[in-house]
Amino acid sequence: METIRGAVLSAHGLCRSFQGNRAVDDMSLSLAPGELLGLIGPNGAGKTTMFNMLAGSLQPSAGRIELMGSDVTAEGAEKRLGRGLGRTFQIPRPFPRMSVLENVLCGAQKQSGESVFGAAFRIGASRRDEARALEKARHILDFLLLSYLTDQPASVLSGGQRKLLELARILMADPKVILLDEPAAGVNPSLLEQIMARIVDLNTQGVSILLIEHNMDMVARLCSRVVVMALGRELAQGAPDAVIREPEVVRAYLGDAA
Questions:
Q1: Which value, to the nearest 10 degrees, does the dihedral of the CA atoms of residues 10, 11, 13, 15 take?
Q2: Nearest to 152 by CA among 163, 143, 141
Q3: For residue 222, what are the contacts with CB-CB under 8 A and spacing of at least 6?
Q4: Where exactly are the structural domains of the chain?
Q5: Could you tell me which residues come within 8 angstroms of residue 189 by beta carbon, excluding any fewer than 6 positions away?
Q6: Where is the ABC transporter domain (predicted)?
Q7: Are 154 and 95 in contact (CB under 8 A)?
Q8: What phi and psi, each to the nearest 5 degrees, are found at residue 215?
Q9: Using an 8 Å Cβ cutoff, are 182 and 90 in contact?
């Protein structure tokens, strides 16, 4: 794949093996500013491994990752989050006994009270940070239409609501790039429409998004471009409607049934 000039996130020749098996094999990818890019492929294609390397939770065995023009290959997920890269997971795991609001507040970054010095000597600053974080968390819950659940324990949320809650926690860090891992999985149709609308809103506000998803209707509606992976490599890329009709892509999904 040709690297996009000015890409906010790019991967160059990424490789990762597990017990001698190449899960990702010389994979490259670029996400343009303000783009909503889909990453699709059959089960076992290497998409999740690719996501984990881009997010910083898994180190590549070869290749390079750049975020906003900086080489972040050796950095972990927390440092990448500080640079503006957030990711969600296919199966969200909120703190079940904490309220929805408390879960969102866990995503606040660079609070004065986080250090011993800040807690002991900057009480006023800490309180102002807490007030700003609380206001921001409530605003995010309003945006995601979760404000009616603010004081409920996270344990009562449905699967789709947990996905929105995880997105809310990521938004507390003001990400410029978000990696979304199967936001439609296990979500009822009405709530899925709500999730899709929020994704579009975020993208319209300038957040660049890379989306892994098996729901091809959702991919076709949201993404202007998709990259197809199979056996750890790029198989095709282009507009969703065109790509999913390519014979190689059909065979990768359907095998002999194609």
A1: -170
A2: 141
A3: 36, 38, 196, 199, 200, 211
A4: 9-93+173-257, 95-156
A5: none
A6: 9-256
A7: yes
A8: -75, 100
A9: yes
Measured from the Cβ of residue 239, the count of other Cβ atoms closer than 10 Å reads 12
User: What is the distance between the terminal CA atoms of the chain, rounded to a whole angstrom?
Assistant: 26
Burial zone of 184 (CB within 10 Å; 0-12 exposed, 13-18 middle, 19+ buried): buried
The tokens for 201 are 């809103």
Q: Which residue's entry shows tokens 């006994």?
A: 97
pLDDT in tens, 139-179: 999 999 999 999 999 999 999 999 999 999 999 999 999 99
Which amino acid makes up residue 222? L
Q: DSSP readout, 203-218? A: HHTT-EEEEE-S-HHH
CATH number corresponding to 9-93+173-257 = 3.40.50.300
pTM for the whole structure: 0.90
